[in-house]
Amino acid sequence: MSIGTFTVRPLDPLEDAELLHRWVTDPKAAFWMMQDAALQDVEREYLRIAAHEHHHAYLGLHDGEPAFLMEKYDPRYVELVGLYDPEPGDVGMHFLVAPTDRPVHGFTRAVITAVMEELFADPAIRRVVVEPDVGNKAVHALNEAVGFVPEREIDKPEKRALLSFCTREQFEAARGASA
Q1: C-alpha distances in angstroms, 107 versus 103, 134, 142, 153, 167?
Q2: Which pLDDT tens digit goes with each residue over 16-74?
Q3: Which of 49, 109, 114, 149 shows the smallest number of beta carbons within 10 Å?
Q4: Who's near 170: CB < 8 A, 6+ residues apart?
Q5: d(CA 49, CA 66)
Q6: The pTM is what?
């Protein structure tokens, strides 16, 4: 069964702000840590990301309709500075699936797979790094399903995080195992 087609486009911080605001303030997005954000806070955050040389945000589309948010960042300059020793070809990633009243079985896993495919489409990327909240058990399971291996817990200013890595080979092996 095919879930559909996933594509990504650069996020427009002003045009997409209302949509993002609905997503990041939804109760299911608690780990995004923007529950109390005003629309202007969301605009400001994504304008900041858009202006950053080493952090990029994308709107993910499912069959042409907005369905997820994807961020990629260079961990040498953003999020993980001083918390681990980056290797050449490392890229950091965040993703958020849009809240829905009609969940589709397997959709979130299909989204994270599409995100990983998008990242690894760049031949310079050798390894994806993530740092979800230690309490976000659902995303830990999703990460492991696509090949991430937890390394250790780290303390970030805003949370205790589970530092995990996924090489291109680990992703391919996980994808092959689930086929």
Answers
A1: 8, 23, 11, 28, 23
A2: 999 999 999 988 887 887 888 888 999 999 999 999 999 999 999 999 999 999 999 99
A3: 149
A4: 147, 148, 149
A5: 19
A6: 0.92
